Every structure is written in structure tokens, then in C-alpha cells.
Amino acid sequence: MPIQLRYDKNSDILYASLTGVVTMADFKNSILELSENTEFASNVDSLVDVSQMEFNDVDTSFLKEVIAMEKQNPGRQGARVAYIADSNLNYGMLRMYEGLADNIAKTSKVFRTVSEGEAWIMGSKSNKNPPQSNNT
């Protein structure tokens, strides 16, 4: 399967690994799986690693179709998504995706390494949920 999902309860991060050729049907199935899952919130923060995905057939129209599918899934609103792309081609295509998807209600950023993406998500979590005061 070209899209593998794994949820880490400890960090509350959904990890997605995309490998080889990923089709529109694969994206649709993945979005459906996310919407039907009860293990985690639909807007769970995610780390999407596309380092092993083939981008040879990915163009602007492909990206726009993915974005259109995402717009039909409002449950992802508020999610933070770190995209991992280690090659120049993958990185550039994801930066184009970011620009095209600027009106989707989620925050995303492209990184070169998993550790950079995890650090961004975890830093965002601590900023989003500051420690509670124990003053009584």
C-alpha cells in the first residue's frame, strides 16, 4: 500500500509514509480512513513523509485535485501538518502545494528531516497548550 498510517499515542502525532507511485484513489482511500478512524481526533497533528514517493507524475493539476479532496474533509481543520521531503524535487513540489493550499484551514510546513518536523509539531503543541497555573 503506497500510504501507510501510524498513530503514536504518546506524542499524539499521526505518521503517514508515502512510497512509490501514489494515485488519486490512494489519497481518497487515505482521507476516508482518516475520517472513519476513532483512535484519534480527525484534526490530529500529522507528519507526512514523502521522501520515498515518486513525484514524476505529480504536477499542478494533481496537487489541485488533492487540495480539492482536502477541502471536502473539514474535519482536518486546525491540524498542523509537517511534510518531510529530502530531495529537491519533492521539496519544491510540496512548497508549491503549500502555496496552492493556502486557503485550507490547517497549518503546514515543509521540512527536510523527520526530526525537524517533529520538533515543529511538538513546539506548536507546547505553544498551543501552555502549562496551567497552580495558583489557588
Overall description:
The chain has 136 residues and is an alpha/beta fold. The protein is 39% helix and 24% strand. It contains four helices and five strands. It has helices at residues 24-36, 60-71, 88-100, 114-128, and strands spanning 3-8, 13-20, 45-53, 80-84, 107-111. Strands 1-2-3-4-5 form a five-stranded mixed sheet, with helices on both faces. The model is unreliable at 130-136 (pLDDT under 50).
Features:
136 residues, alpha/beta, 5-stranded mixed sheet, 4 helices, 39% helix, 24% strand, globular
Cα gyration radius (Å): 15 Å
**Biggest sheet, in brief?**
5 strands, mixed
Strand content: 15-25%
Note poorly predicted spans.
130-136
Mean pLDDT: 87
Read across the widest sheet, the strand sequence of neighbours is 1-2-3-4-5
Residue share in helices?
A: 25-40%
Order of helices and strands: EEHEHEHEH
- Continuous helix count: 4
Distance between the termini: 53 Å
Could you give the count of β-strands? 5
Question: What's the short story on this structure?
Answer:
The protein is α/β, with parallel strands linked by helices. It has four helices and five strands.
What's the topology here?
Elements: E1 3-8, E2 13-20, H1 24-36, E3 45-53, H2 60-71, E4 80-84, H3 88-100, E5 107-111, H4 114-128
Helix pairs in contact: 1-2
